[in-house]
Each structure stands twice: as C-alpha cells, then as structure tokens.
TrEMBL record:
The lineage of its organism: Bacteria, Candidatus Magasanikiibacteriota. GO terms for cellular component: plasma membrane. Keywords: Cell membrane, Membrane, Transferase, Transmembrane, Transmembrane helix. It is a multi-pass membrane protein. Its main location: membrane. GO terms for biological process: cell wall macromolecule biosynthetic process; cell wall organization; lipopolysaccharide biosynthetic process. This is Undecaprenyl-phosphate alpha-N-acetylglucosaminyl 1-phosphate transferase. InterPro entries: Glycosyl_transferase_4. The chain crosses the membrane at residues 6-23, 44-64, 76-93, 105-122, 142-161, 173-191, 203-222, 234-260, 301-319, 326-343. It is found in: Cell membrane. One of its GO terms (molecular function) is phosphotransferase activity, for other substituted phosphate groups. It comes from the Bacteria.
Amino acid sequence: MAYFLAALALSVFLTVIVRKIAIKKQIIDYPDNHRKLHNRPVPLLGGWAIFLAFWLVMGYLIFFTEILGHNLQPQRLIGVFIGSFILMILGYFDDKKNLSPKIRLAVSASAVIIAIAGGVGLDKITNPFGGVIALDSWQFQLGIFGTVSILSAVIVFIWLLGMMYTTKISDGLDGLSTGIVLVGALMIFFLSRAGKFFQPDVAVVALILAGACLGFLFFNFYPAKIFLGEGGGLFLGFILGVLAIIAGGKIATALLVMAIPMLDFIRVIYLRFKIKQPLLKGDRRHLHYQLLDLGWGHRQTVLILYAVSFAFGLTTLFLQSREKMIVLLVLAALMTFVGVWLGRQEELNKN
C-alpha cells in the first residue's frame, strides 16, 4: 500500500507541475466541436506525470529493494523503460506539432520491438480447451538480447500495439482511458494476490500503476483540467499490456477489462476499411462519441464504461480459461449487434 500511495502522491504533484509547463509552452488542446468536445482550451502532456510517477517508484524498487522477483527481473524492464520513454518523446512532439499517423505508428511499433528485444515475451499461452500452447518454436538469436521466439514476438507485437491504440483512442472522453487502465491494474493486482497465482512482485507493480493513474485522474476526470496527450494514451496501453504479459500471461484479464474499447476499435477500423477511409484518421464512430450523440451525458458515459470494465474484470477472478473465452465471444457478439444498431441510427439521423 505504501508504494500505491507514493505513486498517487507523486502523480498528483507531477500533474500540477506538468500542467504549468504545458501552459507555459502553449502545448494546448483546443476544442473543435467535433471530436474535441471540451468547452475551453486544455493543456496536454499529462501522460508525463503518470510516466514519471510510475518509473520513479519503480526505480526505487529496482535499486533499493529486493521486491522484484522472477516475474519482473530488472534487466527485463530496461527495454520496457526505453520503449515507454520513446513513446513519451513521440507524444511530446505530436502534441506540439501534430505528427502524421504513419510516423506515430512507426515510432510506436519501434517501442514495442525494443520491449520484445529486451525480454518481454511469452513462453506459452493457456489453451481454452485444455492444456497450454507452447510458443518456443522458430527461435532466433538476437545478439546480446539472447534467443527470441518468432511466434511469441508476433503475438506480443500485435497485443501491445492493439492495447496502445485502444487506450489512445479511448482518451476521447475526459478520464475514460485513465480510469479503464486503473481498473485493469487493480484486476491484475487482485489476481496476483490470489493463492492460485500469488505473485507479490507483480501485485506491487500493478498497485504502482493504479496509484499513478488515480493521482492523475483527479485532474483528468470530467471536466478535465489536463489531458493525457498522445504519449500518455500510448504509454498506458503499453504498460498495462506489458504487465499482463510479464505477470505470467494475464492477457485474458487485461483483455476482458479492455474488451469493450478494444472491440469498438476493431469495429471502427473495419468500418473505415469498408468505406475506404484512411484507417488511422480519427472520426466520431467510436462508441463513446455515439453514446453522446444519443443524448448520454459526458460523465454518465464515462462512469457506465468504467462499470462495464470493472464488471468484466471481476469475472477474471473466478472464471477459468474456457469460460473467459465464452465471455469474450458473447461480448464480441454484443458489440456486433450494437455496431449494427448504431449504424442504423446514424443512417436515420442523416435521413
């Protein structure tokens, strides 16, 4: 609990500092009455507060304690730190100069590759029909980084990039992305404390992430006084995704928490592809925007999506792998139905 409070306090303090810096440097997000729905200019760069709070407390754990064990060996975290730092630098320049989507994607992919090269990988994944699926075939030597499994690298690459863009896009409403990642971190904490898994080192790191998110959320919840910015949105998905992997493959836990925004992201990408719109160009087809268009309040929408993420996250504490797969399939079917219904509503509004 002390590390949670330390991360929370640092996040609060650093958010105040970062907000002042963003205002001074005029790194501001201005409303456009389309996707940027705030009523007044709001400073960006908020993700730096979470990044610094998280890694400062993590640095203390690495250099001054022996809490981190087998699951979170310090040498494996070097690539994670470098990758996350690259994302924050990318975010700074994007918030300042609005980089092209292709540059953002290329740099984000590079950050993921660095984390994989540094040792973030999966040896196996649970087979929902029983047993495990080994991922140690087709290995190759990667210089000083050791042996890397091609199959594991591909899965981790897709997983992390998907998580990063899900949290980035979820940041369309005040506090939405930060709050959902907070829920995800808490679920990993609870699961890591359970007797079946018991990973105290993972639990501590999950609490640190949760504390850093909560401290920032005091300023980011509607009406937001500061936004995450590009780097912050990517960083949250990156860290939660990495934590799910190095915590013994708790991908299903993070996936169920993030299921609604992730399935919504897939749905929107499909719609853009269908109408031949650039895949990385933002629009208002995302679920949270469409709920607003249907008359839901900003705060109401965010709180309901928090509740959904929390509810499905709780299921991971007692469901087995096959049952989690069934829940995901039900969610996918539900999101397909919702997508069709929203599409019809959009057509009716046009007519």
